[in-house]
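Lecture notes, unit on protein representations.

Consider one protein chain, 462 amino acids long.
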Amino acid sequence: MQRPESDPAPDGGYIEGRVFLVTTAFLGLLVLAAGVAGYVVPAGTFEVVDGAQVYRSAEASPVPWWGILAAPLLVLGGQNGPQLIVLCLFILLIGGSFSILDRGGILPTLLHRLAHRFADRRRLFLVINAAVFALVGSTLGVLEELVPLILLYVPLARRFGWDRKVGMAIPFLSSGFGFAAATFNPFTVGTAQKLAGLPLFSGVGLRAGFLVVTMSLVIGFLLWKTRGATAAGEAVAAEIEAPPPWIRRVVAWMAGCMLAVVAVVAAGTQIDAIQGLAFPLIALIFLVMGVGGGLLAGVGGRVAGLFGRGLKDFAPAILLILLAGSVGHLLTEARVLPTLLSGLADTLSGWSTGAAAVGIYVSQMLINLAVPSGTGQAVLTIPVLAPLGDLIGLSRQTVVLAYQCGDGFSNMLWPTNPLLLIALGLAGVSWREWFRWILPLQLLLAAASVGLLLLAVAIGYQ
């Protein structure tokens, strides 16, 4: 049987050259701006006095010019260095494993049969998958672990007659916006409520209603983007060739590996030690899936070579990850983030409760440019903003809600988020193209978020 060809990026690799160059240039400008900020924004720090966060001025410590240029390397020695190293290794192992499955003809064959099976139910397939991913993101806080699935859904979307952005959006955008409209997300809502002194996962009713609104908007947007599309080529042929002899054992093998990934994710929400090892464990499972799948499909001696080609294809993503991480690193080293946050708190203290809630939401979106980690952003901002809410009559639950929306939805927007850059690279989509495509949905969700926060203020959300 002649195995169907896969759908790599246009240059033959997985990360399109033009996408890489444009994104690199844009991130370079952001790194430069972050370095300059250390020279123009006063330095500061927060100290705990009588249980409260108090801002103190600090001696200026701008990063020298050579440190700005070397930031993509120096960031590895910073506080987020270990996480960045793990992320780099994660994407390399994923890339090598999928190269075996893809170039070995395994993934194209499976996609060919899957597309044929759902050819007449493509939109139902989209709705079900988007809903499931959104629920997983909202309840378990799963997002990073789903990035590898982009390599499956992009070529599948192409066979359904949809574009790459839809293929990327089904697993990544759906789970990302579910992550934002969190109900029991332990990494955002759980962390923020703990820091704000609130009962864990309290106030879930309003958040559950907002999740329904978010899912409806996301699914409606994807259905709109796929309207009138026709499935392409062999995927909708009336007949399909007999399956190769290895397909059943390979499918069973891959299904077992995916169940192992689910087990790691589920255990990580309950056990901190497993959560800390989740990325390495998932990368190891995907490595086993790729190598084992290749051997079961008869790829044999080609496994090492195909794995090496995958490493080469995904290596450019490392630079993007390091550049994105450099922005927050430079601002942290120059100690300007506490000054900016203190200025924000002073400004909000004179606003009405409704305006302050919306102001926190907008500010969290901007802070996410430099601190793309949801947990890290909660640790930085909630100890300052929660007591501020007490002073101006804004409930701490509403402060957490504003943080949650501001952090979560902008994860799918800002190019300083390493995860978004990886996803775009795997899909072969430029950030500019993605920004223009997703902007209408972001505006709708921004309006919904503002309405949610005003409702929370009106009802005294607790």
